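Archive record:
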Amino acid sequence: MADKDRLGRWGEDLAVAYLEDAGLTVLVRNWRCAHGELDIVATDGPTVVFCEVKTRSGLGFGVPSEALGWDKVRRIRRLAAAWLAEGGRGWPDLRFDVISIVCPRGGEPTVEHLRGAF
């Protein structure tokens, strides 16, 4: 596994722990279909939350959440619709969040949770 993949998986593990500590219930991780993958699907009370996780080892290329362009936003929305269609359950509210994690080598990670990011 490449270092980038390992960092991404570690970031998703940290994001799941963060969400659960915040009282959310994680339903699924790395849900895949023909159009791509959702990092985390969780619930926050009656709200289903589609959470994109962005992890970096430093800020040399900017804040991780800045890597989320409009093409990726459209893809996540399309994937969320596919997940909802497959699950068959009606949810009263939907939310799209981004968790941005920076973990400098040898330092403590910082986690930023952007609720309703798009």
Summary: The longest strand covers residues 47-56. The chain has one domain: 3-114.
